[in-house]
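Tutorial handout. Part one gives the primary structure; part two gives the three-dimensional structure as tokens.
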Amino acid sequence: MAAKSPATRAVPSPLEWEYAPAPEARDILALEDRYGLYIGGEQVAPRSRKWFPTISPATEEHLAEVALAGPRDVDLAVQAARGAFEGEWSALRPAERAKYLFRIARLIQERSRELAVAESLNGGKPIKESRDVDIPLAAAHFFYYAGWADKLEYAFPNRKPRPLGVAGQIIPWNFPLLMLSWKIAPALACGNTVVLKPAETTPLTALIFTDICRQAGLPAGVVNIITGDGSTGAHLVKHPDLDKVAFTGSTGVGKAIRRELAGTGVKLTLELGRKAANIIFDDCALDQAVEGVVHGIYFNQGHVCCAGSRLLVQESIYEPLVAKLKRRLRTIRVGDPLDKNTDLGAINSRMQLDRIRELVASGEGDGAEMYQPPCRLPERGYWFAPTVFTNVAQSSRIAQEEIFGPVLSVLTFRTPEEAVEKANNTPYGLSAGVWTEKGSRILWMAERLRAGVVWANTFNRFDPTSPFGGYKESGFGREGGLHGLEPYLRFDR
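Part two.
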């Protein structure tokens, strides 16, 4: 069912070009009315007999009905994965496994336009981000790990790598297909089979991926996709026949998973919350830094685990930087995710929008000064304008808690030592950014920042060859790169 595109542009300003609407065609995407579970190479109806709707957050349009997996469904999926692991899949030569990953990567490329539309329609992110970032990176991860599949003994010299068995994987809603690729590609390259649960609000690209598995000729049971809510994920984590669990999501859920698996021998990796610091020194290229700040927090509506939501600015350039930042915000185009001119799309869900509003209200209550550019938001759907808070106290909730939305908190510092102290004053440690012309200062800061990733004069840049993961309450283990293989392997001596 077609929906009207939301009236989605910011109020005109002297800084802004007028753009004609440039919507991506939806007819490339043919959605089914109802999607079952993908178990043992087939789409099956849930034994739970329960279904739930998935919608477009930009319009609240109903897109499809999706199966809600219960305990029996989870058990069937794990059994299918176990059967595939002990049967055809583990017996394959590694070079043969690699061929399947190469096929999947090429099929993602061939169906990239369809996948990008589905990602933006179901998730609310701008089509230019789905098209230019999410889908190409997803394919790149399968290409990269396909290359490692027959080289594991060279990757880990003097050790004998063996697959673990069955991996249970739970992914979030902010990068559905990309997070699927981060999880499934290394698991298959190492010879494991998987049961993956996508997020409740964004299941569509994972369900389309099941057809890609079919096209690639992947043996039945190697990949199983079970949709559902938090209860489905809990049933998966508690299943006694898993060898590995990988979770990306909130810190609270990650702690619960760790408690559940403690003492079971199940291998675990967690990629959790964040409150990343983006640190701007007075010798930086200021205009470049402003663009990096905007990309760091407003990319994907701030729905990024490593978003630079805390901006630490050296006092001597605070006023010109904030002035340039506010001026830049007035050019951000908020609107229809399928319009190729859109910079900021819809918030993923009503629940997430309510949390953003609650934390923003707390920031105002703490005395911080809020700025939002003139912006006319659509009446239907879930929307929030790009927001900047200045005069933020280090103890404020908006400086300490993960907002996961397009909200930036600006703080100041005088010395590099103070910048490090403020940046590390958080229970999280996933990422950070440093903007300076001095290479020695970049290295000095990177050595002292307690973050898994430190970007220098850029932000939110990813590559499948580079490991990603956190410290402290941002989790443990790494995904991407050579490091991303090890969590899916055991080593015989």
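Part three, for discussion. The domain at 277-465 is CATH 3.40.309.10 (Aldehyde Dehydrogenase; Chain A, domain 2). Residues 127-148 form the longest helix (22 residues).
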